[in-house]
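Hey team,

Filing this mostly as a record. A colleague (T.K.) asked me to run one chain through the structure pipeline before their review meeting, and I want the input and output archived in the tracker in case anyone asks later how it was produced. No errors, nothing strange. Just documentation.

Input sequence:
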Amino acid sequence: MSNEEIIHKLKPIITTYAPASAALENLSEESDFIKDLNINSANLVDIILDVEEVFGINIDNASMEKMLTVKASIEVIKEKLSEIDR
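Output structure:
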C-alpha cells in the first residue's frame, strides 16, 4: 500500500477528531497531530483505535507512542501491514 493510499484512508479518520479544518486542507506527511491539527491526546488514542479497525492491524503501545505525525503513522501502519503479510 502506497503512502498516498494510506493518507487517503487516514484523512477521514483524522477529520473526525481534528478541530482545525484549515490544517486538514494542507494535510501532508509532515503534519503533526498535536501541534498542527490541534488533536488532544485522548482523541489521538481514538484515531489509533480507528486506524486499527480500518487497516485491520493491531498497534502495540510502543508503536502507538511513535504515532505523533502523519509520516510516523504511515511507517507504523506499513510495518504492521507487513507483519500480517508474513
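Quick notes for T.K.: The chain has a mean pLDDT of 90. The CA atoms of residues 25 and 60 lie 29 Å apart.
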